[in-house]
Specification:
19 strands; about 45% helix; alpha+beta; globular; four-stranded antiparallel beta sheet; about 10% strand; 25 helices
């Protein structure tokens, strides 16, 4: 071996060296490529990004392989390919798989109540794309029938009574709205998961139905407003993903983090987020966090996930990723993969990733802002005033659409609250990091002024968003323009120009239910408007009356202000402080009627989901309570005894208190009652016991305290040995 080859072999003994060598090779390759081309700006070459989407079967990738079989990527645009070209697509997928080192496939589906407990939040059975011939020799075998549907046991997933062990069939059908993708040696086929009788056993199926409802009724309304869409209507979303990264060795010293994703005890460190020093601070190369985030982005990039943004968040140890927006089914599938990849990449860098909404007390928790919009198939944005008015030739089209959305929020704020009732959001909503559990919408002063004049007949014409100029009084920074409206981070559902941002969504959630609710609620209002217009009423009159009726839900002020919260509550805005009670609203007569009318969920499916969500809540609390008992018995009491000081008697009594509460939960007859009792245990009893545990931590000497502390968990910059720098500049 040459000296250079030997150096390379030595370097490849560490993951860090692998990344360093790859970057050096990439840089050298780009420089040599530029030299060959005689280019002056070689670093602008896109050659380094040619792997984007290589592992997703869509676009040019699908087109290349389908052409080998006499078809093209265009056939994937029509869902009926599953009936007309299934074998052709399967053959192309097999070729693509083999060329990329894959020989396994699975139908990839999303069981209910998976957040916080199920790794990856999905279900799958992986099968080799092979069979053995009559000579006992292996050969590839992957047909259209294998690709488009499958069958599995449906009784062992949360089903709320929709299935039983003696009626256990679960059926899988490919979701043609979200592309097939590849990771490692496996092809993943996004699929819906239903019972033998078609009942939805998953998160995806209701969303697809809600998409159909929005498409149907939105298309009707747009035609009445002057736009005959070609290809229908779809909802787009963009999902911001917040996480914590903590040292893995400290993570292993926290049974609560390992088993529940949050700390059920823990004294605050002397430093928190009071100096706002972590937010958007530089991503330091002296800790593993930056390299971890880079590798996460690299993996996502190959799978066609445009994970564009990364930065530090507010709390110590907190970070965020954000992609470009896209269709809701694709974005949700991609976000689920992002969460799984985050959890799997972090250990390679000596880290543990925490996706739970509130891992730590007294610092910000994590959310997943759901930026929601609507557009026609050819890209006309319904919530962009100029675009929709121009497309319809109707200056009032935007106002009519906004009236429907405002009415949907006011009417179905309870369902919006239900959709974000994840267990972790118990500790987050209204805690100056997420909006309170009062569902209003922020439109901004300009938009509010416009709609108010529209409804009152004081003005007519298009809405033109204002801008203002900022002049800093310097020569170096010239005056520049900014939107006239500021950001309202306290609102649950603010309008942000061409989109609404559902800010209260929890970080660990599969957001299918969130978007099912948004689409269904708005589809209902679109249908009501369209029905009334069909009956001879005027669209403007309908919109004005609707805004007048639902104007109360618009609030542009500070949602954290207690006086404002009292005022909104008096107005009759939906306010449900308890996540358990919010879940219960899915089976109210109003809501089951809505879902059945829009053909999204049957009454039985709604009832099953209430049971599943309440059981998920109770199960989460039981795990947390069990961890607290073990930590008191196995760590805190021994530490207190070794130190000879601390609240020993109170700690011993606390164990009995928790066990009694858990016994009461187990004795309750319904899932709803169990969840109500679990909430009391979690938000009252366990919080009181936490104070006792934290008091013990305060007085026990550090060398006798066996659990990782907040100081050790939260401050990567201070408590992780500086890694060998991998940043090289050429």
């Amino acid at each position: 071996a040459t000296e250079d080859e030997q150096k390379r072999k030595n370097m490849l003994t560490s993951a860090g060296a692998v990344r360093m060598w790859a970057r050096k090779s990439l840089a050298q390759g780009m420089i040599s490529s530029a030299a060959r081309m005689g280019a002056a700006r070689g670093m602008a070459s896109m050659e380094a990004y040619e792997d984007f989407g290589k592992h997703v079967f869509s676009g040019t990738v699908a087109d290349e392989y389908l052409k080998k079989h006499g078809a093209s990527g265009d056939i994937l645009n029509d869902p009926t390919w599953t009936q007309t070209h299934a074998d052709t697509v399967a053959a192309a997928v097999l070729d693509w798989a083999v060329d990329n080192g894959a020989n396994v496939f699975c139908h990839w589906f999303q069981p209910m109540a998976a957040s916080g407990v199920r790794h990856g939040q999905t279900g799958q059975v992986q099968n080799m794309m092979m069979k053995f011939n009559s000579k006992g020799e292996p050969e590839f075998d992957f047909k259209g029938k294998d690709l488009i549907k499958g069958e599995t046991d449906g009784s062992s997933y949360p089903n709320g009574g929709l299935r039983a062990t003696h009626t256990a069939g679960g059926y899988l059908a490919i979701d043609t709205s979200s592309p097939i993708f590849l990771r490692g040696d496996t092809i993943f086929v996004p699929s819906a998961f239903v019972s033998y009788y078609g009942a939805a056993l998953d998160e995806k199926t209701p969303l697809l139905r809600a998409n159909a409802a929005l498409d149907k009724h939105g298309t009707r309304l747009l035609k009445q407003l002057g736009l005959d869409t070609n290809g229908g209507l779809r909802a787009n979303i963009g999902l911001e993903q917040e996480i914590f990264l903590v040292p893995r060795d400290a993570y292993y010293k926290r049974p609560d983090l390992q088993l529940t994703g949050r700390t059920v005890i823990g004294r605050d460190a002397p430093r928190g987020q009071e100096m706002c020093d972590h937010y958007m601070a530089p991503l330091s190369s002296a800790t593993p966090a930056l390299a971890c985030m880079q590798e996460i982005q690299d993996e996502c990039w190959k799978m066609g996930i445009p994970l564009k943004t990364r930065h530090r968040e507010v709390a110590p140890g907190q970070f965020e990723f954000a992609p470009l927006f896209g269709s809701n089914t694709t974005q949700i599938d991609q976000n689920i993969w992002v969460m799984q990849i985050i959890e799997e990449v972090a250990p390679r860098h000596g880290l543990a990733a925490l996706l739970q909404e509130k891992p730590f007390n007294d610092v910000n928790g994590s959310g997943k802002h759901n930026n929601w919009s609507m557009a026609t198939a050819d890209g006309v944005q319904l919530l962009a005033p100029n675009a929709i008015n121009e497309a319809t030739g109707n200056d009032d089209a935007f106002a009519v659409i906004m009236a429907a959305v405002v009415a949907a929020v006011d009417t179905h704020g309870d369902l919006m609250r239900m959709a974000i009732a994840s267990p972790g959001n118990d500790f987050r909503l209204g805690a100056c990091e997420a909006p309170p559990a009062i569902v209003s919408t922020y439109l901004g002063d300009d938009m509010t002024f416009y709609l108010e004049h529209f409804k009152d007949g004081k003005g007519k014409g298009a809405y033109n968003p204002g801008v203002k100029t900022l002049d800093l009084g310097t020569r170096e920074v010239l005056p520049f323009t900014v939107p006239a409206e500021d950001r309202n981070r306290t609102s649950p559902f603010p309008y942000g120009g061409a989109r609404f941002e559902f800010r209260a969504v929890g970080s660990s959630q599969n957001v299918s239910m969130v978007n099912t609710v948004l689409n269904t609620a708005v589809a209902e209002k679109f249908a009501e408007f369209a029905d009334r217009i069909d009956a001879g009423e005027d669209a403007l009159t309908i919109a004005k009356e609707t805004l007048e009726k639902h104007w109360r839900v618009i609030f542009n002020g500070d949602n954290y202000c207690e006086e404002a919260q009292a005022m909104l509550t008096e107005r009759g805005i939906w306010r449900i402080d308890s996540g358990v009670e919010a879940i219960h609203t899915i089976t109210s007569e109003k809501n089951t009627t809505l879902f059945e009318k829009m053909h999204v969920l049957t009454k039985e499916e709604c009832e099953a989901r209430e049971i599943i969500l309440h059981d998920h809540y109770t199960g989460t609390v039981e795990m947390e309570a069990g961890c607290l008992i073990d930590m008191i018995n196995q760590h805190i009491i021994p530490s207190v005894k070794s130190a000879g000081l601390g609240p020993l008697a109170d700690l011993e009594a606390a164990v009995g208190t928790i066990k009694s509460a858990m016994a009461e939960i187990h004795a309750a007859e319904s899932s709803y009652k169990k969840a109500q009792l679990a909430r009391v245990l979690r938000l009252e009893t366990m919080i009181d016991i936490r104070a006792v545990c934290d008091a013990a931590e305060e007085v026990v000497p550090a060398n006798l305290w066996t659990l990782a502390t907040y100081k050790e968990l939260l401050f990567l910059d201070s408590h992780v040995d500086a890694a060998e720098s991998e940043n090289h500049f050429y």
